[in-house]
Amino acid sequence: MTTAEAAARTALFATHERLGAKMSPFGGFLMPIQYAGILEEHRAVRTAAGIFDLSHMGQFVLEGEAVDSWLDGLTSNAVPSMKPNQARYNIFTNERGGAHDDTIIYRLDGRWLVVVNAANSPKMWAWLSGRKPAGIRLKDRTSESALIAIQGPKSLELLQPVADIELGAIKYYFAGEGSVCGVKAVMARTGYTGEDGFELFVAAEAAERLWNGLMREGPRVGLQPAGLGARDVLRLEAGMPLYGHELEEYITPLQAGLDWCVKLEKPAFVGKDALAEQKREGGYDRIAGLVMEGRAPARAGYKVFHDGRPAGEIRSGSPAPALGGKNIATALVPARAAAVGTRLEVEIRGQRHAGTVVPLPFYKRDRAG
Questions:
Q1: In the predicted model, is pLDDT for residue 35 greater than 80?
Q2: Of 51, 40, 235, which is closest to residue 149 (Cα–Cα)?
Q3: Domain containing 35 — which CATH number?
Q4: Which residues contact 234 (CB under 8 A, 6 or more apart)?
Q5: Boundary of a domain, candidates 221, 237, 253
Q6: Which tens digits make up the pLDDT trace of 51-79?
Q7: Phi, psi values for residue 292, rounded to 5°
Q8: Cα separation, 182 vs 161, whole angstroms
Q9: Are residues 210 and 350 located together in one domain of the fold?
Q10: How many domains are contained in the chain?
Q11: Which of 180, 207, 237 is the last residue of a domain?
Q12: Alpha-carbon distance 296 to 127, whole Å?
């Protein structure tokens, strides 16, 4: 575990201190967990807009003629079919079909950007570097770059007046390049909250200028700084996996319910045979969504029971403000215990508390209008 003294700082560390953020080590960096409070920050993202520092995420830039085919052989989703300026969620799989890391790959003008989880960044850098063929250039841009996310239904309303490109024309999981608040940026319509929003990739030295510029514009839409605490609740409500919880070296994309991200029709990729066999057999443990009864929250690592017998463990858990404060969780359980409507029990402080398996995601935003 990284201590606060040993943790790295993002380019926005001084800004977070000035805002009075509660800081804690996460993924090797000292990151803001909350500012005004998780509930208030959650509300801002669900109803208006929140601003996040995500500069701890690993950013690798790839160049060369055959980047797409190389990445295609290392990941479960398709890469060569990506269009210019498209982003695509993908998973680097190991030989057993487990998740080495989940990622978003961006096909930009003349280059590719691969964004990996902060805690996995050293592992993924070593893994990719050791497999890089001649003719492909790979650079770790993490320390030179920053990533600021604007998430929430009023994100476009906030950003468009200070951007020099038409952001409304950027489709979900596509990107554009231009300037925002006078700062050159890659502006991607991606996010990890279940809301509309943009992730802004900028040079590290420009991060504070961009953050401050956006905060000056913020009162127009009710923008609030948001930390990783709110982000975790938001992503769990939206049914989005977090590496180390719903995905792991020993948890495959199929087990995580990410079948759409496993293209077994591809000629070959790392872990394909193991995933094909798992899919054929079908009886694998899998991630299920769970709504608890009562006020006791299920937390990661708690034991799960089905018909009185041990049946797995909680992978993530939290009260869900978007569901009126109900306690929600994900659990890795056998297929027989994962069907919607199944009653499970979670052992919390020595007592078993009932819950019911429900479809994922727990929350979907209203896309009307």
A1: yes
A2: 51
A3: 3.30.1360.120
A4: 42, 45, 46, 151, 192, 193, 194, 195
A5: 237
A6: 999 999 999 999 999 999 999 999 999 99
A7: -85, 155
A8: 11
A9: no
A10: 2
A11: 237
A12: 41
Q: Which residues of 283-313 are buried (b: 16+ CB within 10 A; e: fewer)?
A: ebbbbbbbbbeeebbbebebebbbeeeebbb
Place of tokens 């989880």: 117
Residue 62 lies in a domain: no
Encode pLDDT of 222-256 as tens digits.
Answer: 999 999 999 999 999 999 999 999 999 999 999 99
Residue 204 falls in which region: left (phi positive, over 0), alpha (psi -120 to 50) or beta: alpha
For 63, list phi and psi in degrees, rounded to 5. Answer: -135, 150
Q: In angstroms, how far is the first alpha carbon of the chain from the final one?
A: 45
Strands 145-151 and 197-203: antiparallel
Q: Are residues 197 and 297 in the same domain?
A: no
Residues 176, 28, single domain; the answer is yes
Strand bridging mode 351-358 / 286-292: antiparallel
Mean of pLDDT over the chain? 97
Q: In what order do the strands lie in the sheet with 197-203?
A: 175-180, 183-188, 197-203, 145-151, 49-53, 223-225
Those residues with Cβ within 8 angstroms of residue 301's Cβ, 6 or more apart along the chain or in another chain: 313, 314
Residue-number span of the structural domain to which 185 is assigned: 13-53+143-237
Q: What is the percent of the chain where pLDDT is above 70?
A: 98
Residue 259 has pLDDT above 80, yes or no: yes
CATH number of the domain encompassing residue 320:
2.40.30.110
- Cα-based distances in Å from 352 to 61, 303, 346, 356: 48, 9, 5, 13
| Residue 69 · residue 47 · CB < 8 Å | no
Alpha carbons 148 and 137: distance in angstroms, whole number: 26
* 41 within 8 A of 222, measured Cβ to Cβ: no
Q: Which pair of tokens denotes residue 49?
A: 């807009």
Rounded Cα distance between 238 and 244, Å, is 17
Tokens 């499970």, located at residue? 344
